[in-house]
Amino acid sequence: MAALLKVSSVETLYFDRIYALFGVSLEIEEGEIFAVLGPNGAGKTTLLRTIAGLLKDQPKKGEIVFDGRRVHGWQPESIARLGIVYVPEDRGLFRELTVAENLELGLWGRRDARAADDLAAVHRMFPILRERAGQEAETLSGGEQQMLAIGRAMLRRPRLLMLDEPSLGLAPRIASLVYEALTEISRGGTTILLVEQNARLALGVARRGAFLETGRVVLEGTSQELMADENVREVYLGVAATDEAAKGWRQYRKRRRW
Ligand SMILES: Nc1ncnc2c1ncn2[C@@H]1O[C@H](COP(=O)(O)OP(=O)(O)O)[C@@H](O)[C@H]1O
Ligand SMILES: [Mg+2]
Questions:
Q1: pLDDT tens digits for 80-129?
Q2: How far apart are the first and last CA of the chain?
Q3: Which residues of the chain register pLDDT less than 70?
Q4: DSSP character string of 197-233
Q5: Ligand nearest 89 Cα, by number?
Q6: 197 CA to centre of ligand 1 in angstroms
Q7: For residue 170, is it within any domain?
Q8: Model pLDDT, residue 65
Q9: Taking a C-beta distance cutoff of 8 angstroms, is the pair 193, 202 a contact?
Q10: Number of folded domains in the chain?
């Protein structure tokens, strides 16, 4: 399968001196769900923001190629116009606008005949958004806000949908609903790059993934390979192979194999 997005040896710094990404390389294939996992502070958000062109003068080094075009250094609007749509961790909603108004903004600038069909498709995927149409976004539950953010993103007709911790703060049942929707979106042909701390949830839907730790990719593979990896099982999935492993993180730091 061809790579839709190719990130090569990307280095991103804050304030020109604090390294957040130390040479990250990843290839996201057309049509797949790819999960970037790792602990807090690993650089997951920085990676998505770098791809979206939201960090000025970054990446400092490396290349980002989307659909054959080198897009690093482009303005965020130009990158978005290629079909890279980013749902940030805070969902990026207009909190004082209604659900319907937020969705209208997703349709902003679209004059094509499919706009109404796309809105209908979002309502089919998340019927609650029709029920809540007149309600201000800030009055929605966390799960409903995430659905609104994803629904609005779909109205941009993304080729690559990037999501930052879509399950964050959601009850497990609601997080599962959101992930079911992502699976459905993927079946519709949209490529998805998602970032999560919840490895179990993300690897449950992703085809492939990578673990980031302190700005570096430490492990990459199919979801099956990652779920079978001993370190991943101990540290991220909480499956202790031995009593010693159950002692946790400090042991892992000493014994880890990457
Ligand atoms: N705006 C910022 N200014 C300075 N440092 C930042 C900023 N945002 C993130 N960082 C630092 O970059 C590193 C990666 O952060 P981040 O990408 O947010 O990680 P993650 O999303 O995996 O939790 C962390 O050390 C964090 O402190
Ligand atoms: Mg983050």
A1: 999 999 999 999 999 999 999 999 999 988 888 899 999 999 999 999 99
A2: 28
A3: 1, 240-258
A4: S-HHHHHHH-SEEEEEETTEEEEEEEHHHHHH-HHII
A5: 2
A6: 14
A7: yes
A8: 98
A9: no
A10: 1
> If you measure from the C-alpha of residue 41 to the centroid of ligand 1, how many angstroms do you get, rounded to a whole number?
5
- Would residue 230 count as lying in a domain? no
246 part of a folded domain: no
Q: Which protein residue's CA is at the shortest distance from atom 2 of ligand 1?
A: 14
CA dihedral 194, 195, 200, 204 (to 10 degrees): 10
The atom number, within ligand 1, closest to the CA of 212 reads 22
What pLDDT score does 111 carry?
A: 81
From the CA of 40, how far away is ligand 2's center (Å)?
Answer: 7
CA distances to 27, 146, 149 from 122, rounded to whole Å, are: 28, 13, 11
> In 3D, which of 194, 195, 144, 135 has the Cα closest to residue 171?
144
Structure tokens at 211: 């673990």
The residue whose CB lies within 8 Å of the most ligand 1 atoms, and thus the one to mutate among 14, 15, 55, is 14
CATH number of the domain bearing residue 210: 3.40.50.300
Q: Report in angstroms the alpha-carbon separations of 49 from 21, 44, 77, 124, 145.
A: 11, 9, 13, 30, 21
CA 148–ligand 2 middle distance (angstroms): 20
Q: Which domain holds residue 71?
A: 3-216
Report the atom number in ligand 1 closest to the C-alpha of 43: 17
Q: Is the CB of 21 under 6 A from ligand 1?
A: no
In a domain, 231, yes or no: no
Which ligand has its closest atom nearest to the C-alpha of 56? 1
